[in-house]
Sequence to fold (333 residues):
Amino acid sequence: MGELNEDAEILFAEYLTEHCEATEWAREILADYEMTASVVEAKTKEVRANMVFAGKPNILLRQGWQPIAKWAAVVIFASMIGIGFGRWSKEVKYYSRTSYEKTERNVPAKRSVATVLNEKTGFWGKKAAAFLEPSKFPKRKPSVKSSNLWDNYRKLKERRRE
Amino acid sequence: MPRMRDGLKSEFEKVWDETAGQVRAYIFCKCRDSNDADDLVQECYLRAFRSWGQFDGRGSRQGWLFTIARRTCVDWFRSKGKSVQISLDDPDGLQEVVSEKRNPDDAATVWEMIKTLQPEYKEILYLRFAGGLNYAEMAKSLDVPVGTVRSRLHRGLKAVKTKIEGQKNGT
Fold:
C-alpha cells in the first residue's frame, strides 16, 4: 500500500516469500484494497476532475470585505445608540439671562486729583491735599548716619551740649 | 500588509490547486451530492482561510484541511437534521441494496455497500481512497494513533468484502 519504506518493504517481501499462508493472506487483502480503491476512484473521478466552479476567487473577496463591513456595522450601531441616548436625555436647563443683564453703572466723569481733594472736608482729605501741594519749607536732608556706633555716640553728646 | 496578503493569497491558491480536488472528492463521498459538495468545499476553504495562522505546523497542511472538511460535513449534517452515523445495525440501507438484487461485483453496488459500513470504517476509506491521505495524515486528522488507522482500514476492507460475499451468497 505504499506505506513502508524501502528497507521494511524488502523485509516484508522476504517474509512473504518464506511464509506461503501470509502471502495468500496479503494477496486477499490487496485484492480488497484495490477493489475498494477502484470503486471510490471511479465514483469520484468526475468530481475530482470537474473543478470548474467559482469557489476560489469568491473566498478571498468575501474575506477582504467582511472585516471592514463588520467594523462599519459596529460603528454605525454604536452611533445609533449614542444618538438615541442623546435625543432621549433630559433637556439641559439654560438659566435666563435677565439676572445677568448689563446694568448701567454710574461712572462719574474723570476729574483731577486736586479737584477731588479740594472738595473733601474731612481731616484726611485735607491732609492728602496738603501732602500733594508743594512744600513751603526746604526739605531737610536726611542725616547720614555713620555705621560706626562710637561716632554716633560722640555726635549725640555734642548735640546735647549745644 | 498588502505584501503579507499577497503572500497568503499565493500560498492559499497553491494549497487550493493541490488539494481542492481531493477535498471535494472526500466531501462528495460523505454527502453523495455534487452541488452540496461544492457548497461544503467553499465553506471548508473559507474556514481554512480564516484560521490559516492557527495551523501549528505539526503534520501536513493537507491533513489539517481534511480535519476542517470533516467538521464542516458534521455541521452540515447537523443543520440538515441527518444522522452522520449510518451504523451496521441500520437495516434499511442494507435491505435496499439486497432487495434490488444487484450484481455484487458492480461498482455501484460496492459503492452503496460502503455507505452502509460503520462510520469509523467509512471515514477511513474515504480519507484513504478519496482524499489520498497516508496513514500519518489520517491519524493526525482523526486524532487517533497510526495503529488504529491501520486496524480500521483493515477491518473496513474486510467488512466490504464480507458484504460482497454475503450478497453473492444471497444472505
In short: The longest helix of chain A spans residues 56-88. Helices of chain A lie at 6-18, 20-49, 56-88, 113-119, 123-132, 149-161. Chain A has six helices and no strands. Chain A has a mean pLDDT of 75.
